[in-house]
């Protein structure tokens, strides 16, 4: 299947969107809420928006034409995320399903003088055996220009278009709903005094839903960010940055006839350091305030953070630990925004030139904010939940171009409202061809 992810440079945390064909259990399910990740670009990892000058080597591509073809067969026992109660009340629904994901990616990268221009096109199709109403096409197009100006300034200009199937929260969301996502951004950084850099970023994005009921989720985001970073050595720095994101829901109004709006402001400090050749620690910790313009003036404020640890063991194994806390707008019809704390652990191992494996675990604790006057007709509410995800996969290379992968996963959500609780198990087999 096509999933939307953020590719972040491990040191600078500069992030770009990319679509890949994969099926990574709870991590995949969570990342399908692409807009939440985009919102995090300035809230949680604002340093990602502030320092393109330090991530040029990762965000540009100069390898000319490249391609990727893949096909993945999966079987899951609860693709609809039904609770036990919903299964009993709806015996006609088939929670168990098998599906095929076919995917094609084409890309082109070229250096033009001191600039790097890249273009990526990704198209895919999912076919379900039982729940054919969820069959969908996915399409992504993105372009990036990394530029340099003089000896001290550089930046990035990027655009992105994605069409995807909406995420499923409960039985009410089992509908065919294509989501169209458009983003445009510009970021720049200039060194102003030896080791000191001044940075800034601006981004616009739009989300449109095809299904009529879900159009209440249509929204526009405007993001601003600025900061300072001071280098204290190779791959070591400290910094201070601030950001603001304004979210406007085009079709959602309160009883006072105001269109729903959400504002988030944050200020954070950041630090990065490597401890020997094998350990890298990066993080930003700050204060975040999120509020809406409803009659109740829903608001949350407090600590936000993003901490990443990467450890390389015996050159063959890499362990990643990521901790975060943030507040993001929701993609479902019931709540306004949620505060989420996540823990992610991943182990990537290379056993031979042809054989590798990955094991990942994810935990998320979510608190939802509703307000009394937003969409009360859309069923029951879920004030909080905990989601767990575990996945393992093995990859085997059949040569320079072909790779086989097989894996299994388990996801579970425990909610304060049992209607939102579910568990899901799955197996998958994938073959990919790339140059």
UniProtKB/TrEMBL annotation:
Gene3D superfamilies named in the record: TonB-dependent receptor, beta-barrel domain (2.40.170.20)
Q: Where in the cell is it found?
A: Cell outer membrane
Any one GO CC term of this protein is:
cell outer membrane
Which Pfam families does the record match to this protein?
Answer: BBP2_2 (PF10082)
Instruction: State where it is primarily located.
Output: membrane
Q: Which domain of life is it from?
A: Bacteria
| Keywords attached to this entry | Cell outer membrane, Membrane
InterPro entries of this UniProt entry?
A: BBP2_2, Beta-barrel_TonB_sf
In Swiss-Prot or TrEMBL terms, this protein is called: Beta-barrel porin 2
Q: What species is given as this protein's source?
A: Kordiimonas sediminis
